[in-house]
Amino acid sequence: MKKNEKALVVFSGGQDSTTCLYWALKKFGKGRVFALSFDYGQRHQRELACAKRIAGALKVPHRILKINTFPELGNNSLTGTLRVGNRRGRRGLPNTFVPGRNLIFLTFAAAYAYVRDIRHLVTGVCEADYSGYPDCRRATMKALEKAISLGMEYPVTLHTPLIHKTKAEGIRLLKKLGGLDALACSHTCYNNAYPPCGKCNACVLRARAFKQAGIIDPLLKSKRQEFVKVK
Amino acid sequence: MKKNEKALVVFSGGQDSTTCLYWALKKFGKGRVFALSFDYGQRHQRELACAKRIAGALKVPHRILKINTFPELGNNSLTGTLRVGNRRGRRGLPNTFVPGRNLIFLTFAAAYAYVRDIRHLVTGVCEADYSGYPDCRRATMKALEKAISLGMEYPVTLHTPLIHKTKAEGIRLLKKLGGLDALACSHTCYNNAYPPCGKCNACVLRARAFKQAGIIDPLLKSKRQEFVKVK
Hints:
By secondary structure, chain A is α/β, with parallel strands linked by helices.
């Protein structure tokens, strides 16, 4: 990596991307990290406010890009009319699978980076417990990195610091990076609930991860998704 | 290719994608071809009406998907505020280059295909005289095909029947397929003009191609972008 390079974090406001934000700040340095969120018609719109608050507290320039296309594609429970459930949908994948979502996010992130001379993209995709989402795998990321670099004639590096970590290991990493408090302000629940519903796939995975890590989720301690305390 | 497979044509309403539509109808058969256009904030909105008319005349189910994200990315003349020009923009590419455009189109097309059990995507990208767009090259398409197939756990084939043809060869192919008349109803001009401005890059390339093919452009003969005559 060259000196003074900039990085763009795809930042949902959830626990994994919050860890990525802290990771990027450590790796690239303050003032060289940017965050990008997507308003793509997700039911859990609450995550966008969380993303904004966390980025603001860390003084990371943050932008929310709108994508209005996913609801038109239909047939998933995150942007469509299906009920969020743990049941399997099409082709054995959870019905929360939005086909192409991470591919689209990262391609738009690369286009956003292109006009700002940013060569590094950071995403919190996680293969180890990836909920059955094929767009969270290392092989997908490598192929996409190549497609983007060729398609924009602009070599980018996709950083996936969590790809081979369990969610529990991700939480421990965030703790080590000094960012655990930020999770009081994060959002994960697919049902857009606060306090979290505790029942959707995302809530179940998050709870299991904290239990495995032996750490109490700051979100559950927080009384009203309080502002992150920055050290 | 298995029997009775379906294909989705990414259909802009221009000359190349019209050729692809005829090509797909021949290869996959009537009733098994679908068309998808994108309303992405392009100045040349006229192409969408042209696409609708051509698809309608050929009885091909056609859908226009909206993508509102590109104008927010800025910095190109197709969706932004720059003037369409032949001058080179960022990194030596024309200022009509919208970073990531074809990657995004094909990924959304694949997501659209995913929920409809369509495994074949057809795009009119053309490497031979590709206007300097890196997302029209074979290597990009191969990498993207892999990224999509892995990312959706859904193997798709990207067909690029024009990739190694000059635009003149593409016109001859369309003639052979019996579709030349359809071009009376097509649109190419970046400046959204009818009659075409004749000055933008797209108009210049189209005029040169017809000249090389030794064929008069049906669009220039047509008095008001008349409805395509289907045989």
